[in-house]
Design brief:
Largest sheet: 5 strands, mixed
Radius of gyration: 14 Å
Shape: globular
Oligomer: single chain
């Protein structure tokens, strides 16, 4: 089997999480500058086998797309050209940033650590991936 890679796309930074090769455990991988995301992914898939890209789909409370969806769609078009062999699936990412922040609090992180937006993005990607894995196994 191969890994599943989750992307919490942001205007400036993008959080990335991956599964193990058995697709059981979701782990935060890193946060990259969004302008470097495509080259990071291209490099990553040249070294690791990836079955699927999960990309967060930000929704408003009324279920309409958030304003960042336009940027995500443009990114997905570029991704499909650069890495066409790996399918993309979208995942509702409502509340993942709040859940990530709460996870940091519950984990005993100090206030200064919780201000680390890159870490919040990485944890958000991990939550997106973990929820996908949970839904696959239930």
């Amino acid at each position: 089997m191969a890994r599943i890679l989750a992307i919490d796309f942001g205007k400036k930074r993008t959080g990335i999480a991956v599964t193990d090769e058995l697709q059981i455990i979701a782990s935060g991988l890193t946060t990259v500058n969004t302008n470097e995301l495509l080259s990071f992914l291209k490099d990553y898939v040249s070294k690791e086998k990836v079955d699927l890209f999960l990309v967060g789909q930000p929704k408003q409370m009324n279920n309409s797309d958030s304003e960042s969806e336009v940027l995500i769609v443009a990114f997905l078009k570029k991704l499909a050209k650069i890495i066409p062999e790996i399918p993309v699936q979208r995942v509702d990412e409502r509340f993942t940033s709040k859940m990530a922040f709460q996870t940091m609090i519950d984990g005993g992180m100090k206030k200064k650590q919780r201000r680390n937006k890159a870490l919040v993005d990485e944890i958000s990607a991990t939550i997106i991936l973990q929820s996908y894995l949970y839904n696959q196994h239930t």
